[in-house]
Amino acid sequence: MCGIVSYYGKKNSVPFLLNGLRRLEYRGYDSAGIAIMKDGYIKTVKKAGKVDKLHKKIKESPINGSIGIGHTRWATHGEPNDTNAHPHQDKTGKIFIIHNGIIENFSTLKEVLIRKGFNFKSETDTEVLVNLISDIYYADGLNFEQAVEAALNQVIGTYGIVTFCIDEPNKIVAARHGSPLVLGVGNDEYFIASDTSPIVEHTRNVIYLDEGEIVTIDDNGYSIRSMHDDTIVNRETTEIEYSIEEIEKGEFPHFMLKEIYEQEFTIKDTMRGRIDPVDGKAHLGGIDDHMNRIKDANRIYITACGTSWHAGLIGKYLIEEYAGIPVHVEYASEFRYRKPIIDSNSVVVGISQSGETADTLAAIRKAKEFGALTVGICNVVGSSLARETDCGIYTHAGPEIGVASTKAFTSQVTVLFLLSLCFGREQNISSQTGKKYANALINIGDQVKTILDESDSILNVAKSTVKADNFLYLGRGLNFPVALEGALKLKEISYIHAEGYPAAEMKHGPIALIDEKMPVVCLAPNDRTFDKVLSNIQEVKARKGVIISVTDKRTLELEKVSDYIIDVPSKHPKVFPILSSISLQLLAYHLAVLRECDVDQPRNLAKSVTVE
Ligand code: G6P
Fold this sequence. Notes:
By secondary structure, the protein is of the alpha/beta class. The strands form five sheets. It has an eight-stranded antiparallel β-sheet, with helices on one face. Helix 6 packs parallel to helix 12 and helix 8 runs parallel beside helix 12. The structure holds 6-O-phosphono-alpha-D-glucopyranose.
């Protein structure tokens, strides 16, 4: 969702804010704006569209100042235009705010303010909040921080905010509830942002704010307070682990392509130190202390959104087969609002690349209410999911910037493989099977490289199908979630309508759509589902569908019925889903580029969905 940056120091804040907004643009890119405080006045510049447009506007009439706030927006209330862009100001023009989240009771608060004589220029909930702060500040004799807190006490919803007021110059106040904020501590300068990416090139020392915390920065430094119990928070800084190169595109035209190529190494990074090829075992330190409780669980729920949910589905197949524990996979947005059958003997696993997805966090909080053990599988170190779960496993895929998830997905699946191996060796998997399984995973890097080297042949398939308006993806067993993920990738970045289906289920509906214009991507792994999938392919062929087979078993029969074949050099059926996912990422990428779509920032999407 929206990206927040702010600077407090001695330098001109504008270059930092603009650069920071570019780094955060993956969170939302409808409009952007900054506000600068200098010599007793505040100046703001806002522009609908991407950060480049804002940059151009500032270049035409430059501003500067050593205290500044900036925002890139993913619209919730009101269409993306200059007026609805942040920062928003109160009616006196003295208080400015940037906000990520949703104020759910904004219309009630707005009515009260209108009755008091306030009027509003934008359609946003944020303008209501800044006027609420103003109303309290100028009426109640509170200082600015107290007024901000008093206003936030009236808010129902979520927020990450940064605000300042001309009547208390040289001060920034920020607070979080439901939307992430991190404080960067430099040499006589401070940064606040939605994540660490704008901060890392200025300081590696950061403090992640917890729910309900408010931070004030002034000439004396910073202070953090919990709004829950009014206590001062003394938290040590932690160090950002990744390098700047990891958040740059380098020589790649798009982050997405860079991240697809990184999978040759990221999958290995996920496994590093966690797999033992000699005994065919896996070891996951992050869940060690809770291993017995997990093994003895009456059921496991996996809850997630989007691509992470697809990884969860693969996890279900693996854990049930190898550990014999029933696994339910549920969209977090559904799980959070129903009465799941869980208790203290249940385990709830939240999967999230960002670790900040609002629904996934809410589902985990719900699981805690029921007494379940919560486990987080996430990529971003220090994220809310990592901090709020009882234990967890990092995917270690490195920062993922492209909105469509790629390397994070294959790392999530790898973690789930490791998890199933971990449980399985204590339950249903022999040492021999464990060894085969472990070695298949360990050697996957070379097979990933082979797929990446074959990118041009996937490009040719894309060129031949680029005019299609619809795609169907079919898979069975472990590869059904891969079909879902392949279809999601395609629609996210190319805007081609695509559906994933269990291959056999196709004849209960989607078969009606098949004609000579419909490409059907069929996952045909060399396992017990191969012949069944082949039969399903014949059914599609009989209706003149265009067959794109993705396989590690090129038989004559398959060649005969396929219009195109994408080879997957898999050495073990259990790693086929990881490898075939990478082929499907490349297919989606090439189709999107051929259709001249904005691959890294697809329309209407955001990478980290911190509102429900
Ligand atoms: C958004 C992104 C998806 C992602 C989903 C879940 O919709 O566009 O790529 O899969 O959120 O995100 P998470 O960070 O929880 O994995």
